[in-house]
Structures are given as C-alpha cells and as structure tokens.
Specification:
- This protein is elongated.
- It folds into two domains: about 45 residues, no CATH class; about 170 residues, no CATH class.
- The strands form two sheets. It has a two-stranded antiparallel ribbon with strand order 1-2. A two-stranded antiparallel sheet has the order 3-4.
- The protein has nine helices and four strands, in the order H-E-E-H-H-H-H-H-H-H-E-E-H.
- By secondary structure, the chain is mainly α.
- A hairpin with a 4-residue loop joins strand 1 and strand 2.
Length: about 220
C-alpha cells in the first residue's frame, strides 16, 4: 500500500499513526478489502476461494428453485379453474388432517386447498430439469419448456437440460457430502463456479421469459 493511501485510510479509521504501517490491503477489479492492525484474519487466508465458490453454487440453485416455484404459483390458479384440470395437479395429495383444518379455518374451503397447493409447489420446486418439467406440467404450462428455453437462449437443443443436470448433481454433492468424491473433496475453480452461476442466471431469465410468453393472450 502506498504511504499516502495508508495515511488516508489510517485517518479514516482513526488509527494511531504508529499502527498505520500495519494496515494491509487486498484489491481486485471489484473491491478493496482493508485489514486493520491486530485482526486474526490475514490476506493469505483468502487465497483459497473454494469456501466461497461452493456456497455460491448452492445459493444460485436456491434462487432458481424460488423462481420456478413463483412461476408455478402464478399459474396454478387458472389451471385449477380450467375445464380440464392437469392430471398432475389433481394428483397433489391432501391429508385428512389438512381437510379437517380447512373445515375449521376457512369459510371457503378452496382457499385452504390453494394454500396446500402452494406449499406443495414450494416443496417440490427443484433445479432438476425433470422436476421442473413435472411442476410446470402440473400447473398447466405447455410441455417442452426446455426446447423453448434453448431456442430463447440461442443454443443447441438439449443444452439447458444437460447444464441443469450437471449443476444439480454438483449442488447435491456439495450440500450432502461436502463435495467429496470418494475420500477426497472435488476440485472447483473460480472459472467453473462462475460458469455454473452464470448458467443458472441465464436459464432463470429464459424460463421467466418463456413462462411469461405462455401467459400472454
């Protein structure tokens, strides 16, 4: 760190002058990270990015699951009111306990049913392409969603499903076995994690656009 910057930061942090030469700085194209004197955290401890990369993949998948659930919830009302209710929607299970709760809590019991369907959707939502397809089928969205997503993204047919299968498998391995393959943890580069997160983002945007087009008159 240049002496002028060190003095400016030391003054901003109200550090005594004798401590300012112990300030450390990490800089990237996105941020500055300043290490104050006496901290237990050292810059060399941040050389391994994998503790941040794996949660990034898990969080990206969680965001996509939320998006998929929100889309399905936005669509199931019209599917439920249609003359031909989708088979998968009719197959959503309800317990006797739920039925008793609907009778006691709601004057209009169908509101209880709607709440149960929303809860099932939120539980069933996934990044796995087969589950996304099943969920969208249950709420009356046309089949072949990933063919339309591939076309929307301008990529070869089958690419979105392959990417989601790979990302979902990696997310599950991270979540359930700390990303271990056998007795060792699998390697994960910044480039690989960035590619997964970018793919999830692009797929999410495309799914939202395709679903919106399906709702438009």
């Amino acid at each position: 760190m240049r002496s002028e910057l060190r003095e400016s930061l030391g003054e901003a942090f109200r550090l005594p002058k004798k401590q300012r030469d112990r300030l450390e700085l990490l800089e990237s194209s996105h941020l500055w990270m300043v290490f104050k004197p006496g901290t237990a955290l050292r810059s060399d401890q941040l050389e391994d990015l994998s503790p941040l990369l794996r949660p990034a993949i898990v969080m990206a998948c969680a965001a996509l699951e939320t998006l998929v659930a929100d889309i399905a919830i936005a669509h199931f009302g019209s599917a439920l009111a249609s003359d031909i209710v989708p088979r998968r929607l009719k197959e959503i299970p309800l317990t006797v306990g739920q039925w008793m709760e609907f009778r006691s809590r709601y004057k209009r019991q169908h509101w209880g049913v709607r709440g149960a369907i929303e809860a099932w959707i939120e539980e069933y939502a996934s990044t796995a392409p087969n589950k996304i397809g099943e969920l969208f089928s249950a709420v009356g969205l046309e089949s072949g969603v990933f063919k339309r997503v591939d076309r929307h993204r301008g990529i070869a047919g089958g690419t979105t499903e392959r990417e989601l299968n790979e990302i979902t498998a990696r997310r599950n391995r991270i979540a359930h076995s700390a990303d271990r393959v056998g007795s060792r943890r699998a390697s994960l580069s910044f480039k690989d994690a960035q590619g997964a997160v970018t793919a999830v983002r692009d797929i999410g945007h495309a799914i939202a656009e395709v679903a919106q087009a399906a709702r438009s008159p």
